Amino acid sequence: FNFGIFSKKNSYLVFIGNSLTERFNACHINNTYSNLITKSLNGQNTEVEARSGAMLNNIIQSFKEITAIDPKYAIINIGVNDAGQGVDSIDFINNLNLLSDSLIKNNIQPILMTTQPWTDASLHNDTIRYQYSRCILSDSNKYIVVNTYDSLVEPNTYVIQDKYTDGDGHPNELGHRKIAEILLNRLDTILQIAGDKIIDGNIYMPN
């Protein structure tokens, strides 16, 4: 398992994840959250490296590939497959901590997305523990955590809301749009703090 060769050297931002980022059948490629954000970044290069079935350890194994393109930011969306495979939550927290620290040492700012709710409520306990891991990391100024979980989850059942998926758990176009809106709002603040304001004032969103 590997993510292959990154094509855009010196990309400003890289999206890393599993099939939720890769795009699945429920969403046209042009309307994924990564593409919606890319269209709002005033021409900055971005790279999407995501593979169906990817887990956190796969990202760690591909660390050299990430650093090779020297991005300024890495948006990481991972955890559903780890929960499905029963990865221990402490191991997940420790590995996420390791990955984040390693990125920072290479002058890459990690932006950690919360694990997405799924159609299987039995994964609830693990995904909640993974949310907690993000909360632990966000206590430090060096970690940036974006909470998309609360906006996508059905509070009474702890699965992804029906309107955001076509039934298999992967975001549909409405789900990708919701994720993009949340990420763009946070990115706008993050980039302003960094003195790196590049988001288009007219954020691209399809009707």
How would you sum up this structure, described in words?
This protein has 207 residues and is of the alpha/beta class. It is 41% helix and 11% strand. The protein has nine helices and five strands, in the order βααβααβααβαβαα. The chain has helices spanning 19-22, 33-38, 56-61, 63-68, 80-84, 89-105, 124-138, 149-152, 173-193, and strands spanning 13-17, 46-50, 73-77, 109-113, 144-146. Strands 2-1-3-4-5 form a five-stranded parallel β-sheet, with helices on both faces. Helix 7 links the parallel strand 4 (109-113) and strand 5. Helix 6 (89-105) runs parallel beside helix 7 (124-138). The longest helix has 21 residues, at 173-193. The mean pLDDT is 80.
- What is the N-to-C order of secondary-structure elements (H for helix, E for strand)? EHHEHHEHHEHEHH
- Distance N to C terminus: 37 Å
Judged by helices, strands and strand pairing, the structural class is alpha/beta
Strand content: 5-15%
- Report the uncertain regions: none
- What helical percentage do the residues reach? 40-55%
Q: Identify the strand order in the major beta sheet.
A: 2-1-3-4-5
Tertiary shape: globular
Largest sheet: number of strands, sense, barrel closure: 5 strands, parallel
Number of strands: 5
C-alpha-based Rg, rounded: 16 Å
Arithmetic mean of pLDDT: 80
Number of helices: 9
